[in-house]
Amino acid sequence: MKIISATVIVTSPSRNFVTLKITTDDGVTGLGDATLNGRELAVAAYLSEHVAPLLTGRDPHRIEDTWQFLYRGGYWRRGPVTMAAIAAVDMALWDIKGKVANLPVYQLLGGASRNGLQTYGHASGRDLPELFDSIRQHRELGFTAVRIQTAIPGVRAVYGVAAQPQASGERYDYEPAGRGAYPVEEDWDTRAYLRHLPTVFEAVRNEFGPELPLLHDGHHRMTPIQAAKLGKSLEPYDLFWLEDCTPAENQDSLRLVRQHTTTPLAIGEVFNTVWDFQTLIREQLIDYVRAASTHFGGISPLKKVMDFAAQHQIKSGFHGPTDVSPVGLAAQLHVGLAIHNFGIQEYMEHSAKTNTVFAQSLTFVDGLLHPGEQPGLGVEIDEVAAATFPYQPAYLPYNRLNDGTMHDW
Ligand code: KDG
Ligand code: MG
């Protein structure tokens, strides 16, 4: 069996997605997600100019060897563009292997370790009544855990907070759901955030009781000592996790956070390789691995990092926003179903428009996600529909402090 073509499909049904389609001489096709929010065309070019020509003629079954060929053989290692491109190849080859074996990918990874994956949804509100409505709405949809993001007094726009009440039926989609050729500027004030957030969690606990698992995303905006302070002040509200409390390129800085708080920590949605987690896992400085199959080199390395994490009682919390395409989401659902140390799965449903391009076999029943029993990943792309949604430039917003200083994401 040989690969005869690898083509890149860029489409924008609600938001931009980059998908790799590999075809074999037997006519079997596999899909991989290479979407890098705000930098989509860089990965598309990396794939079509530098990767696709190298794939023709290769045996699609040699997944590990192809991964190492693209990673080690390219000389330039790591980085989000390279790793998203390698991820797409890896996923597409697992998809092909599953189709040839007539088995869903999770069966090739060891089989199911559970019935389905507990998920969390994104509740948000500009004030408490709006937030409470959003939490109720998520519970009605079946979510058994929710992430809480709110507006902050004195800050104009806060990333992750819907600009309209979610109860109105409009589901919140991450920026750049509003598209444009230049990123939107938002503002930020960490001290105001640190003062306000514990009051929000207190109100949510008073309203919804002690059992509902609550999560929060700090979007990398704190220094280690600020993160330590926030973790400590949130302890009475028993968070499931505090996510991305610092920009964690400096893994050592998490030691300080860890010394001060027992609030569980989740990190890694912008990490690209297992090496980015080395200190964090070895020293048990986090509780959840946030990597996404798409930005981490695919299914093969995701399984490896989770096996390393298992030795340190660290679980998965894979990144599942709408900018991880249905293909990337399926890839990590198969891993999550198979590994023993699954923690929780983030789930933002893709829009109806996205689903006109991608047919997904996943199910979401009673708060549990399941990738389905279709051979391979369980996602197919309608290329005719995809072509009707051309790429549109779109960027994540950025933020500045009151005095105009650029701040961490
Ligand atoms: O592209 C960036 C988004 O995917 C990211 O900001 C979402 O932080 C995020 C999350 O936890 O889902
Ligand atoms: Mg996040």
What does this 3D model show about the protein?
- The protein has about 400 residues and is of the alpha/beta class.
- Helices cover about 35% and strands about 15% of the residues.
- Strands 4, 5, 7, 8, 9, 10, 11, 12, 14 and 15 form a ten-stranded mixed beta sheet that branches.
- Helix 2 runs antiparallel to helix 3, helix 6 runs parallel beside helix 7 and helix 7 packs parallel to helix 8.
- The longest helix has 22 residues.
- The radius of gyration is 21 Å and the shape is globular.
- The N and C termini lie far apart (about 45 Å).
- The mean pLDDT is about 95.
- The site of magnesium ion (MG) has 4 residues, from loops.
Can you describe this structure in just a few lines?
By secondary structure, this protein is an alpha/beta fold.
